[in-house]
Amino acid sequence: MELSSFVNLHPGVLFYNTIQCLTICVIYKGEIDKPMPYSKFASTGSSSGGKSPAMVSSRIGMLIIYGPAAIVACIFQFILPHLGWMDSTPTVAGWMVFAHFLKRVAEVLFLHKYSGETELNAAKFIGVSYAVTAFMICLLSNPDVSTSDSNISFGMLLFAIGSFGNLYHHYLLALLRSDSSSKGDSTTGKKQYKAPSGGLFEYVAAPHYFFELVAWLGIAMTSQQLTSHLNFVSMTCYLC
Questions:
Q1: For residues 126 and 65, is the Cβ–Cβ distance under 8 A?
Q2: Residue spans of alpha helices (H) in 34-79
Q3: Cα–Cα–Cα angle for 60, 65, 67, nearest 5°?
């Protein structure tokens, strides 16, 4: 793989890559100091003396987060090639991005069980970020990759392992939410936290995050473009 194909020298793309590098630093520090409001690790209290932020149900919030990116990837992979726009060609990495966000939307609709709320502005911000990520990966990924290339094959394998591993551990979390013992204390009515079990939950705190990163690494390897690799670093700072 040549450097000229890995690094797109278009000024707009180089500017975006620079923004990605700055964002990586901001996300890393931000997730340590103050996690995203929808995160399990974020504080649920409103800021003192401040106006309470607009909230939506967690299911709606997650659809706002994942839906736009799925739509963007769908447009790139299904619609634009038939319109002849900018000689758009579906890419392997583009299919992976579409599959990833379609899976997340399906999980939100049919698998996950929600009881809380999400800050609307945070959901919008993350949704736009994911949509831009999907747009750039689909736009810039190398369309001429061959599945006979060992690096491409390994990237596809990582994506498959990461996606199924992520789905399985999301299923385990959904089972936990279905367990009546995890819904609350019958005497106090308060919600109780119950540690997940099964799969890699026996060894690490968040295996679903680990497998999601494995999937993003597979996308980066298959994309063969700097933008996707920087996205993987950004996602690592975001999820870890």
A1: yes
A2: 58-74
A3: 85
